[in-house]
């Protein structure tokens, strides 16, 4: 058995992770894909055959230089239109850090794609065309980043070469954006003047902007602190599978397998199983075929408990000292991602971690207008790309945390029970939409819980 000292040391090493998830966003033609392509190219993260393919397409278009945006614009429709439609994920690494990036669309009708790309991001890069300044779509992207609790935002003022590398242009845009994003509650904002096309301040410092003394985009990405203080997060363990071999070697083995969503679990710790509320004690943790005394997120492990409790997939195991409360009345902010509207009275499935239960949309108190953060009260329904407040009544209790406290266990999906289509992505508790006073009415058509 691995010693507790070694395991705690491993936990400290994990807390200083070298992985950064980040998303790029900006209006159409602000240069998101070119910036990502420049990052990949100048950090030597592009394979030879990939670069040859980009050069061939660029030459076919009559372009003299390779169009680095093609490194991320993978869909044929995107290449033909010169825009980003889908979320393009790329993986690369430098000597200092590994990266997972999501290049998200700029069009208003693809706001839902930005929500997808930024939902797990530690940092968002919001691009602004230096000629246009902060526009409606810039404010929309800042609002989505704040809504999703992205802890770090980089304002990349692009195309500085087209405004003569003027410091005053950059300063004005940086001041306006910082004031707006700060009002939304974004905790950290870093402004960097760049030219993605020319490579200024992307990977290498610019010789054209000696008035700027801050980091390049890559330098900031490599050094921005990514906090994963696992010991400060309440432990949450959604059960994925119950293991009972019932073999001659393990006649009485009963283990509960899954991935730790957050926090740390230890042998000997008192735990509560939700939603039943039954309590027990962890007597064993199995990880990668070995028994360990301690495990932490995001490890996949098997827990063994002192008592034979009726536990199945979808149950949540948490320390008794800080177990979440269960509820059947979920108040949340959702981003509607389906083409069909989400209306009051809709029967849905709600998927939270490994648990899926029936639910009814009881109320849609408001729809958020991201342009000015105003509330449109009682819209009756949400359509594709809308963000609004909902009140959902579930058939069975859910152990939800507030999204502000945990992005993993505070999020959920609303699903169409007829065909399994994802309707909306939800964030439980308060966002920056005001909490509505609601009265849950009895359902008249059979889903009365």
Core attributes:
disordered C terminus, alpha+beta, 449 residues, six-stranded mixed beta sheet, 8 helices
3D structure, described in words:
By secondary structure, this protein is an alpha+beta fold. It contains eight helices and 25 strands. The strands form five sheets. Strands 7, 8, 9, 11, 12, 13, 15 and 16 form an eight-stranded antiparallel beta sheet that branches. The protein is globular and about 75 Å long. The two termini are 48 Å apart.
Instruction: State the total count of DSSP E strands.
Output: 25
Distance between the terminal alpha carbons, to the nearest Å? 48 Å
Radius of gyration: 24 Å
Shape: globular
Determine the fraction of residues in helical runs and give it as a percent range. 10-25%
Approximate strand percentage: 25-35%
Give the averaged pLDDT, no decimals. Answer: 82
- Uncertain regions: pLDDT < 50 for 5+ in a row? 1-5, 7-17, 74-85, 433-449
Total DSSP helices: 8
Largest sheet: 8 strands, antiparallel
Structural class: alpha+beta
- The assembly state of the depicted protein chains is single chain
